[in-house]
Amino acid sequence: MRRTSLLLVFGFILTFTQAQVDTGAEEETGGEDDHVELFTTPTTKMGAATSDFGYNLFRALASREAATNVFLAPLSVSAALTQLSMGGSEQAERQLHRALRYHTLQDPQLHRTLKDLLASVKTAGKGLSLAARLCLTRRIRLKQEFFDLVEQQYGVRPKTLQGGAKDMKEVNDWVSQETSNNVQRFLAKPLPRNSFIHTVSAAHFTGKWTTRFGTDDQMMNFQLDGGTPVRVPMMQQVNYPMKLGVDSDLGCTIAQISMQDDVSMFVFLPNDVTSNLTLMEDSLTAEFVQDLSMTLLPAQVTLTLPKMKFSYSTDLQPLLGDLGLTDWLENPDLEKISSQVTKLSTVNHKVVMETVPEGNQYPSPSSTPGHLTYRVDRPFIYLIRDDPSGALLFIGRVVNPKDLRM
After folding, report:
1. Of the candidates 69, 62, 30, 75, which has an alpha carbon nearest to the alpha carbon of residue 280?
2. Is there a contact between 178 and 352 (Cβ–Cβ < 8 Å)?
3. Which residue from 12, 48, 136, 233 lies 20 to 30 Å from 343 (Cα-Cα)?
């Protein structure tokens, strides 16, 4: 487990705008304790594996798209690539499972466990919808047994591509249906006719807070690295209940904000205005975040967060080499899909997310605002996590909220 040194704060002002902590009581947590097993059930172990895959993929994406907004919903990518792994030889499946972090599980019911995890995080109250599917070209002779196997395990049959605009419409219509019409135009252009296999992964998330914010958005400054501040809509609320801690090693303050139906948002806010968040990105693991959930301390703060509403799409296939799949990409050995040589052409991914001020509880009615302030007014990293399973649902780096687009 990563050793954490969290400076936990009580009874004094946290002025994050200057990224300084006033003098006050502090407590060091962590140390050279004996290793404690944090994930003890098949579901939480699967949640940890899919999360670690997601953190690795996010690091690769963040490195490729330096100093820009980037977002990812890793569970949908895991689901699509897991379906693909069912078409490989034993060695090819082992290679892909290692990248997906399944080699840590030793779970003979891996597909059932993943299916159960997907079902648990898609319950209505969590605000998450996912879509994951394979699309295969007709230019190779396909084995129908593979189609039957994937459909039996995951309830979705791989799509055979006919070629042209009709495929694009059918894929877009299917993604829209799976996400309750929230992810539109998944494909902006037809898939190449000379391609082989494509994965489709999409997600929509509507943030539903446990404690509501004030209903009136306020236009406030968001500091940019080396640039003029931009005015963006912010949500703000005094006496907001959350959990806080300062990690002096990472140079940031970490918040855990409760959302409805056992979901949390973690925010990693650097002490300085910088778009280089590599140190925080590199620290992220399933164990570290689980440790944070048990270590951060409750506080009531004046909380200010950007109001976010955006979509983001990309092809993740070029990043798979960074996850140890360079050899697999050259020779995936998908013998259960076709006896002909075939390769993975694209890993298309699109996410849509929205946060709104509404919640099902009101903050403390105290007329006197507390002294703690958490103002997210500069580049930051956030993640959305399912608390019971520990599964990473969404992760993003926000460098400039003004650039977020639907």
Report:
1. 62
2. no
3. 48
- Rounded to whole angstroms, how far apart are CA atoms 217 and 209? 16
List, in sequence order, every residue forming a beta bridge with 353; answer none if it has no partner: 205, 310
Contact predicate 270/277, CB 8 Å: yes
Residue with tokens 């050793």: 3
Sign of CA dihedral 355, 357, 362, 366: positive
> What residue has token string 């949390």?
264
Which positions ≥6 away from 200 have C-beta within 8 Å?
A: 80, 131, 132, 133, 134, 135, 171, 174, 175, 186, 348
CB 395 within 8 A of CB 74: yes
- Residues 371-396 as b/e (b if ≥16 CB within 10 A, e otherwise) read bbbbbbbbbbbbbbbbbebbbbbbbb
Closest alpha carbon to 271 in 249, 238, 304: 249
Q: How many CB atoms lie within 10 A of CB 361?
A: 12
Q: From first to last of its 406 residues, what are the pLDDT tens digits of the chain? A: 444 444 444 433 343 333 333 333 334 444 444 556 889 999 999 999 999 999 999 999 999 999 899 999 999 999 999 999 999 999 999 999 999 999 999 888 999 999 999 999 998 889 999 999 999 998 889 999 999 999 999 999 999 998 888 999 999 999 999 999 999 999 999 998 888 999 999 999 998 899 999 867 899 999 999 889 999 999 999 999 999 999 999 999 999 999 999 999 999 999 999 999 999 999 999 999 999 999 999 999 999 999 999 999 999 999 999 999 999 999 999 999 999 999 999 999 999 999 888 887 877 776 566 679 999 999 999 999 999 999 999 999 999 999 998 7
**Domains (range + CATH), the chain:** 6-29+209-307+357-403 (2.30.39.10), 69-207+310-354 (3.30.497.10)
